Amino acid sequence: MPDRFEEFVARRLDRLLRYATALTCDPHLAQDIVQEVLVRAQPRWRRIATMDAPELYVRRMVTNEYLSWRRRRAARTVATTHEALEALAGPVADHAVRHAERDAMRARLVSLPRKQRAAIVLRYYEHFTDAEIAEVFGCAAGTVRSHISRALTTLRTLDVGGEPRRPAVKEALHE
C-alpha cells in the first residue's frame, strides 16, 4: 500500500532539505525549493505514490526546480552561515579545518554549471549511482558520467577561492 503524503513528508523531509541545501549552498533557498516541490506534489500524490520509486521522483522534482529557479543570482550566491552544511561534513579534529575545507569546497561547487553541481551533489553527498542520477535528471547514464567528469576536471583546476589556478612559473614556461 502506498504511503500517505503526510507520512512520506514526515520520513523524507530532512533528506530532501539536506539534498536541496547541498545543491544551493543556501538553506533558505533550499527550503523554498522543497516547499514549492511539495506543494506541487501533494495534489498528484496518488499517482506519485504508486510509482516504483516515489522518493526518486520527488528528488527529480527538487532537482528540476533548482535547475530552473527564477532567482538565479540567489542560487549562485554562497551562503555566509556555517550551519547550512555542517551536518554534511565528516568528523575533523580541528573545527577551523572543517570550516575552511567546507568553505573551500562550497566556493568550488558554486563555480560549477548547475547540472554539473547537481550531479556532483547527487554522487558524493547523496551516494547515488549513475543510473539513479540519470533517472533524477531524465537523461542517459553516459550523460551523467559526462557531467561528473567535466565537473571533477573543473574542480581540480580551481584554487581554494573557486578561481582558476594560475600555472606555476615552471608550468607557464613550458606552455
CATH class of the domain at 1-78: Mainly Alpha
Written as H for each helix and E for each strand, in order along the chain, the element string is: HHHHHHHHHHH
- Which regions are unreliable across 5 or more consecutive residues at pLDDT < 50? 167-175
Q: In percent terms, what proportion of residues is strand?
A: under 5%
Number of strands: 0
State the helix count.
11
User: Architecture of the domain at 1-78, CATH level 2?
Assistant: Orthogonal Bundle
Overall average residue pLDDT: 79
In terms of quaternary structure, what is this? single chain
Biggest pleated sheet: none
Helix content class: 55-70%
Name the structural class: mainly alpha
How would you sum up the global shape? globular
Radius of gyration: 18 Å
CATH topology of the domain at 1-78: Rna Polymerase Sigma Factor, Chain: A
Q: Give the terminus-to-terminus CA distance.
A: 64 Å
Please give a structural write-up.
The chain is mainly α and 175 residues long. It has a domain at 1-78: Rna Polymerase Sigma Factor, Chain: A (Orthogonal Bundle). The protein contains 11 helices and no strands. Helix 1 runs antiparallel to helix 2 (27-41) and helix 8 (114-125) crosses helix 10 (141-156). The radius of gyration is 18 Å and the shape is globular.
Summary, kept brief:
With 175 residues, the chain is mostly helical. It has helices spanning 5-24, 27-41, 45-49, 54-67, 72-76, 83-86, 95-110, 114-125, 130-137, 141-156, 169-173. The radius of gyration is 18 Å and the shape is globular.
